[in-house]
Write a structure and sequence with these properties.
alpha+beta; 4-stranded antiparallel β-sheet; 9 helices; elongated
Length: about 300
């Protein structure tokens, strides 16, 4: 659940909560998981499922009882019980987005409006670079998925001014520079899989418009980044973890768009964009004489 809830690369550490018992007085003393008693001296950088598995392996290799025992003030105290584990998640909001060792979820892979760009269509091998956004742009400009590489590297060189093999990815905050260079609006969405209860309410037009996968779960799209530019062309991309995929048909992408502020669902992307420009988040809006609005 921790991994699925994160929208970007993050760092992860663990702390223990436990009771110590004094062998002479039988006094119990509780130690909560704190910043000063984490299990690992340095947090793990989690980029994908592979790095998460590495973290899990390191966690399983730890002697939790010994870790708690080392927190004793003296030898008169023994570990009575380990009561809980706390995960410390450190978000990295402006990390470079690329596509090295990605592992997309099945509901993203099965979306017919997406060109996922996980593997080279000619060789079948997984991409080992961070050029996914430039591949999206090449596709948008009409290049075939089987003839992307030359144009992709050309676009990256134009943007990066260095060897594309050294490109580490592009943070969301730098997309305005990308837009300015290539004269294209970039709108970023992410797909969310849920049980249909993403918010407190839906718009009337959404009541009969749900998209479900084979397991019966609902998939909706959340706006990650809207473009503030006014170019004549718009590139739509899907963000999953640390990877951009190309949205080839925004109308087929999903029939359910989630407002990140109030959690209402909207039927199409244009309706969501117009709504979010004025949305004030959760809560009821009250109008008072003079036109003033407050949220409670």
């Amino acid at each position: 659940m921790i991994f699925e809830d994160q929208k970007s690369v993050f760092k992860l550490n663990v702390g223990l909560g436990f009771f110590l018992r004094n062998i002479e007085t039988c006094e119990l003393r509780y130690y909560y998981a704190s910043n000063n008693s984490k299990l690992f001296s340095e947090p793990f950088l989690i980029r994908n499922t592979s790095t998460l598995e590495h973290f899990n392996e390191a966690l399983l290799a730890q002697d939790l009882l010994e870790h708690a025992r080392l927190q004793r003030p003296n030898s008169k105290w023994v570990v009575e019980s380990i009561t809980n584990v706390t995960y410390f998640v450190y978000k990295i909001p402006d990390h470079p987005i690329g596509c090295v060792t990605i592992d997309l979820p099945d509901f993203v892979k099965s979306n017919k409006a997406l060109v996922t760009l996980e593997r080279n269509r000619n060789t079948g091998e997984r991409y080992q670079d961070n050029l996914c956004l430039f591949r999206c742009l090449a596709l948008y400009r009409g290049f075939s998925p089987k003839s992307l590489e030359k144009e992709t590297k050309k676009l990256c060189t134009e943007y990066f001014r260095q060897d594309p093999n050294n490109f580490s990815g592009i943070p969301l905050k730098d997309l305005s520079k990308f837009e300015d260079m290539f004269k294209v609006n970039v709108v970023v969405y992410e797909l969310i899989k849920h049980d249909g209860n993403v918010g407190d309410s839906t718009t009337d037009e959404m009541k009969d418009s749900k998209v479900c996968d084979s397991a019966g779960a609902t998939t909706t799209a959340r706006l990650v980044r809207r473009s503030l530019e006014r170019y004549g062309n718009t590139l739509y991309v899907n963000l999953s973890g640390n990877h951009f995929s190309y949205i080839s048909n925004i109308k087929m992408y999903t029939r359910s768009y989630l407002c990140s502020k109030c959690q209402k669902l909207w039927k199409d992307s244009n309706a969501l964009l117009k709504h979010e420009m004025n949305c004030e988040g959760k809560g009821s809006k009250h109008k008072f004489p003079g036109g003033t609005k407050n949220s409670f």
